[in-house]
Amino acid sequence: MITLTASAAQEVKRLIEKEQKPNLGFRIGVKGGGCSGMSYVLGLEEATPKQYDTVFEQEGIKILVDAKSHLYLDGMSVDYKTALMGGGFEFSNPLAKKSCGCGHSFTA
After folding, report:
1. In this predicted model, what pLDDT tens digit does every residue of 36-51 receive, in sequence order?
2. 105 lies in a domain?
3. In a domain, 52, yes or no
4. Which of 12, 21, 45, 53 is most buried as measured by Cβ atoms within 10 A of its Cβ?
């Protein structure tokens, strides 16, 4: 399972409202790259799941995760921080063995 904190859910809802497309979901995934080997990928897309997607729903938000990414993200929590410098989405991933300084990439 992947969870959003209240502040992350609020920010995702704000982004969906800004797009003016109520059927958007929040896709979370990983891709190779970044300073620690794998990078987190976030995006808004139609909430219709693709083949092999896992879908979580929280506070009315559909969270979409492909099967490969789910192996690396299961149990992760996503938070959102507002700050003059260094704000944005933050990841707490219990499967990450090492993370980079910026927190946007990891080693599993």
Report:
1. 678 889 999 999 899 9
2. no
3. yes
4. 12
**Structural domain contains residue 107:** no
The secondary element (H helix, E strand) that includes residue 8 is: helix 6-19
In angstroms, the Cα distances linking 14 to 8, 59, 89, 90, 93 are: 10, 13, 13, 17, 24
For the chain, the maximum distance between any two Cα atoms, rounded to a whole number of angstroms, is 39
Q: Model's pTM, two decimal places? A: 0.83
Domain containing residue 11: 3-100
> How far apart are the C-alpha atoms of 79 and 91, rounded to whole Å?
6
Residue 95 makes CB contacts below 8 A (sequence gap 6+) with 72, 73, 74, 75, 76, 108
Query: In angstroms, what CA-CA distances link 94 with 30, 48, 66, 72?
Result: 15, 28, 18, 9
Burial of residue 97, with CB atoms counted within 10 A of its CB: 0-12 exposed, 13-18 middle, 19 or more buried: exposed
Q: State the total domains in the chain.
A: 1
Instruction: State the pLDDT at residue 101.
Output: 54
Amino acid type, 14: R
